[in-house]
Amino acid sequence: MMMRVKQIVMLSVLGVACTVLFVSFRATNTTNEIPQISDEGKVQLEKLVSKSIKFSKDVPEPNAKSKANTNVIIEDDNHILAVAKRISSRYRTVLVTMVNDAYLSFTYSWLCNTKNMDIHKSVLIITTDKVSKDNLTRDWPEISVVSMDWSTSHGDQTYSQVGYVKIMVKRTEMLLSMLMADIEIFLFEVDCLWLANPIPEFQKIEGYDILVNPVAGTGEKVYAGGFLYLFKTDKAKKLWKKVTEDMIALGEKISSKSDKTAVSEADNDQQYLSRLLNQKYADIKMKLLPLDVYADGQWYKLPEDKRNQSHPIVINNNWVVGNKAKIERAKKWKHWFIHDDLTCDMDLVKKVVYK
Ligand SMILES: *[C@@H]1O[C@H](CO)[C@@H](O)[C@H](O)[C@H]1NC(C)=O
Ligand SMILES: *[C@@H]1O[C@H](CO)[C@@H](O)[C@H](O)[C@H]1NC(C)=O
């Protein structure tokens, strides 16, 4: 700060103070501007979209009545679209989440939590590394797992740091790729308590493009980036393509920075999505998933009587920074469903989930 003042004083002697002030003003404000995608980024985005559209044309909707389709050969079995299509043809909605190795224990806890909800066959977990994929596939054979094998994303990633944002860019792209292949998606995060299965309710909703959950305390102006339902409508596709464009641009902006570098809180998928929803981009029809039913981490901070009166279906374990703190909170509240050896504590699950 002192340096800057001194420089301005010195430069003003030279008569260019205005320029310097202007430059430093701009520098502190650039974080609130949406980064602009490069031409290369645009090409990448269009490739992603056309690849998905081609996929959905080449691989027809598998239909139980038509024998012809059962023999469709999908070349790369690990290909995310092939896996997602297989799920959606049977269960309609693909429950997508992305995890890295540091998040594996959370994933196991959530899988135990939802073990008896009859949804694991709809779950598609994208892992950022191969070991997580292998372990999950071995221990939870009902779920589908695809790995990105992406060396930069190992270890504990903290919210609003470059490493974390890079994973979010990838996640946004993968969602677009599925949506463009006409696959309906529910995006969730595994650091979440499920007291009941919310999917049947979501599937009953008609006439909307997207279901979003507001972030507590934002006057319903910011929507959770990790808990949303995307219908396969043209408007939802258009919206998500724009979110992806903004995220690719952000990825380009931070590409040369190290993983632990801080990224402005104004720059992430949640902020970009919220901005577009608030300006009704593409004339999007969104429905709010109310916080009293789909609670976020603020639920843990409610006074006890309010908590007792509430009847949420899910509680996202957010509003706490860092993996370790999250696990500690989950344990403290008896919302942690694995033993130290990663096996399920089903007695606890039965006590916590609704009958
Ligand atoms: C995967 O499983 C192996 C064998 O049980 C274990 O040693 C390893 O720590 C696990 N890896 C992760 C990332 O949990
Ligand atoms: C809330 O519920 C718990 C468990 O049923 C009970 O022990 C506690 O007294 C309740 N607290 C209030 C303020 O109602």
Walk me through this protein's architecture.
The chain has 13 helices and 10 strands. The chain is of the alpha/beta class. It has a single domain, classed as Alpha-Beta Complex (Spore Coat Polysaccharide Biosynthesis Protein SpsA, Chain A), CATH 3.90.550.10. The strands form 2 sheets. Strands 3-2-1-4-7-6-8 form a 7-stranded mixed sheet, with helices on both faces. It has a 3-stranded mixed sheet with strand order 5-10-9, with no helix packed on it. Strand 2 (123-127), helix 6 (130-139) and strand 3 form a beta-alpha-beta unit. The longest helix has 21 residues, at 234-254. One 2-acetamido-2-deoxy-beta-D-glucopyranose (NAG) binds next to helix 11.
Q: Give the SSE order as H and E letters.
A: HHHHEHEHEHEEHEEHHEEHEHH
Approximate helicity band: 40-55%
The count of strands amounts to 10
What binds here, in terms of ligands, is:
2-acetamido-2-deoxy-beta-D-glucopyranose
Mind telling me the C-alpha Rg? 22 Å
Quick summary of this structure?
The chain has 355 residues and is of the alpha/beta class. 44% of the residues lie in helices and 12% in strands. The chain has one domain (5-349): Spore Coat Polysaccharide Biosynthesis Protein SpsA, Chain A (Alpha-Beta Complex).
Task: Give structural attributes.
355 residues, alpha/beta, Spore Coat Polysaccharide Biosynthesis Protein SpsA, Chain A, seven-stranded mixed beta sheet, 13 helices, globular, disordered N terminus, binds 2-acetamido-2-deoxy-beta-D-glucopyranose
